[in-house]
Amino acid sequence: MKALTWHGKRDVRIDTVPDPEIQDPTDVIIKVTTTGLCGSDLHLYELFGPFLGAGDILGHEPMGIVEEVGAEVTNLRPGDRVVVPFNISCGSCFMCHQGLQSQCETTQVREHGNGAALFGYTKLYGQVPGGQAEYLRVPFGNTLPIAVPPGPADDRFIYLSDVLPTAWQAVDYAAVPSGGTVAVLGLGPIGDMCTRIAAHRGAGQVIGIDLVPERLQRARAHGVHTLDLNEHGKNIGEAVRDLTQGRGPDAVIDAVGMEAHGAPIVKGMQNMTTLLPDALAAKLMQSVGVDRLSALYLAIDLVRRGGTISLSGVYGGMTDPMPLLTMFDKQVQLRMGQANVWRWVDDLLPLLTDADPLGVDDFATHRMPLAQAPEAYSMFQKKQDGAVKILFTP
User: Fold this and answer.
1) pLDDT grade, residue 284 (50/70/90)?
2) How far apart are CA 297 and CA 295, in angstroms?
């Protein structure tokens, strides 16, 4: 089959690789019909080479048609249409029963002290072949895939794999009071969807902050009050407080994470690790790694006293300096973590099977054949051509 594989920093290629096969009796094989490009994929494209191997298949936002089922699969049969969550969970352990599928005890990557394995990611999360491919082996066929009805185009359901549950959890963790105010930092796919979900769930005012014109315009079209970092610069905090009676918003969602703008020294340190031998770079990143924390520091500054910060943007540093004095003094509540996809399926599916209140049908800005994935990665990384969400068709 054809698959998108990693070969080095900013070097991804379409290769011919062996078709996946049933390995365990609860496995299923799906023929991928649509698969997404995520901002987290850019971390692999740019930074996490020490934890990847040449030829690793990327991608963790797939859906498709069941092609083959293992002998013990009873809940699916060939021809069924499914979405595959990005985190791999058994559905039956203690953590899964707590709604913490991202911490699944069956698939935890204990070698590295990490939570549930992920499709198409790194050695830190199991190095499981990903979904930017023509076919995908999916374990736990009775409990992991999300069955969706035939009929609507893939765009209606594909975001159940990651974007929708990640954004829904971010808004839920933000605990925005009814009629309250939330500021969303970063209007990429997750941040954009956070603004839509926050409004749908009753936020009175949604403020979106970014510096990419196309992303700001896209959010404004959905009723978001946008602020351009290029315009406000260091005065962004005052601009937000001016909109919130001087207090700041009830909640702030950081949908940016480790690759925030405005930290050139740390960016240089991150880039230097890519020049080191993999073994040394990996050790440094795991023990003394730092993130670009501009977005998180801004969230701490913006949120009102007693408010909540919700982190959906990915952070990976081990020695990140945190302004705990300020956080303690402001009585800030902080929630974060990988999305627990299955925890939110019952909330999300009803929003996808009839009307389209979250605008998923036209959420993608680009639809491209998988063969053009290397060009798509470059375009998305450079924020060119208004790229916010890219979907591939294998």
Assistant:
1) very low
2) 5
